[in-house]
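By convention, each integer encodes one residue's backbone shape. The lines below illustrate.
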Amino acid sequence: MGRRTKLWVVVLAGGEGTRVAHLTTNRRGQPVPKQFFRIHEHGSMLQWTLDRAARHADRTRVVALVSDAQRRWWEQQLHPLLPENILSQPENRGTSVALLHATVHVLRHEPGARILVLPSDHYVADERALDEAIERAVEHARTSPEKLVLLGARPDLEDTEYGWIVPAPGSAGEPTPVERFVEKPPLDEARSCLERGGVWNTFVLAFTGWALIHAFQRVVPDLFNAYMSALDGGRLDAYLARRAYADMPSYDFGRDVLEKMTASLRLIRLPACGWTDLGTPSRMERWLAERSGPAPA
């Protein structure tokens, strides 16, 4: 129980879902952001993710990152969470700002916290296998608090829509040191990553809050300094957020942060568990076809 109490889960639920909007429409033909769209009896992807989070952390330690523009969709689905742990951003300034915002929020409540990040657009057939991999990642973040631990999925093709994690050559056992992280490479580079034993980045990762803070300080100091200067008494209130976000540097977490700090990364490979990212039309269409198509939300 002691290990669990220091673990927080950050659920990423602020994506716009524009690429799959034509597949996630309600009865009135209005597009629903994919993470909030209810698919038959399966519920929404956000609800799946909240269920995952609840298996690893107490409800009071689950944080959701959402956007102001999508309040009508998330307000009801996030009712199990503490209102103070629903971080609604006034605009999208990239994944780095979102994760920095969430990490500062968590550390303000628990300075020694470990954090698990869960995207809200994943389907997993075997949740138990995913849970076991997550537990290993969280445990390694505890014993090696300076590292960020990534979960990688074994690829079946040279996909250019994922980040790729290339393990260091000759590495035995897990977690594995990382030689390269490449965010959405061109086809020839993706093929090279596959040939060298690379895996897809699931964006499920575990770390201590201070490890990520130090990474931002080193890799994107302008973002870190801009964010910290906007805080008032350790908090970014709604008024400050609207003013600060407009001028906040926008960085992609994979390309602008992870690619530049491979020495601090460790990899755990997911076993075969039916993991898929439902963020692209082809994957969403395939997944829906296997389940007889979408139902109105």
Summary: The domain at 2-289 is CATH 3.90.550.10 (Spore Coat Polysaccharide Biosynthesis Protein SpsA; Chain A). The first strand starts at residue 7 and ends at 12.
